[in-house]
Amino acid sequence: MSSQSSGSKWVAGLLVVAILVVAGVFVYREKQAREAVGAPPFANVASSSSAATAARDASPQHPIETPAGASTAALPPLDQSDDAVLSALLAMSGDGALKSLLRPEAIIPRMVATIDALPKHTIGTNVLPMRTPTGTFQVQSADGMFVESKKNYARYDTYMYVADRVPAKAAAAWYKRNYPLFQQAYRDLGTEGYFNDRLVEVIDHLLEAPELKGALQLLPEKQGYVYSNPAYEQLSVGQKFMVRAGPENEAKLKEKLRALREAIVADAPAAASTVETAPVD
């Protein structure tokens, strides 16, 4: 796909292994897409979040509360958190599959930047928390037009395997325990918003991705392919990946996202904007 239409996989990321996987899976950019020329190593950059998003920082819609029974040990500084985060994520996934996919540097900042970018139309490959799938994007001819080959779906097998192994509740509990690190990474993007509100917003956005009943025509460009249907070509990188992952994978990812969303908002304290009940005389 072209740089303008390149979608990617995430974390149905991303936030916990489930979140991270989703993020890594969603923000995947096809190798045939245009690579950002001279893109620097990952670094925090200013976000284009709106003023409305910033305002939610003072009154979050989905406030986070540390789970009961969670460790009271102090969290490491964000820039020194990679070892602890990697250890926790690998323990949650249960085997070495995640380790083969994960980029072990700036894990939380990459996850946060990836999740924040999923509803947008472009994303830099330098922020992805996971390595991209091997091989190249394949197309085939059908009724005189180019369509995506179903062989592409197999390239996502390891990512789907990892996503399937991560328990949503365990992932959400780890995320809540480490939430201050996620919030700091979100602030470092240049926004004053509340990251958990953004995460729920992104999950809802991905759940709204269209579900295909047939093949979509692709048009060849100098580098890669674009959808001939403007409605699909204009989808966000997150929704575009959901479509490209194939009907079966999309259904599984949406199921994982719903479970993750439910676990994240479960037992949340009342939002600051909740109206108090007047005392009874």
Keywords for this entry:
281 residues; mainly alpha; two-stranded antiparallel sheet; 12 helices; globular
Largest sheet: 2 strands, antiparallel
Percentage of residues in strands: under 5%
Strand tally is 4
Rg, alpha carbons: 19 Å
Gap between N and C termini: 66 Å
**pLDDT averaged over residues:** 75
Low-confidence stretches: 1-40, 44-57, 272-281
How many helices in DSSP terms?
A: 12
Shape: globular
Judged by helices, strands and strand pairing, the structural class is mainly alpha
Could you give the order of the helices and strands? HHHHHEEHHHHEEHHH
Strand order of the largest sheet: 1-2
State the share of residues found in helices, binned by percent.
Answer: 40-55%
Number of domains: 1
Report on this structure.
The protein has helices at 17-26, 51-55, 82-93, 97-101, 107-117, 157-165, 168-177, 179-188, 195-207, 230-233, 237-244, 247-265; strands at 139-142, 145-148, 218-220, 225-227. It has 281 residues and is mainly alpha-helical. The chain has one domain (17-35, 45-265). The chain has a two-stranded antiparallel ribbon. Strands 3-4 form a two-stranded antiparallel sheet. Strand 1 and strand 2 (145-148) form a beta hairpin. Helix 1 packs antiparallel against helix 6. The N and C termini lie far apart (66 Å).
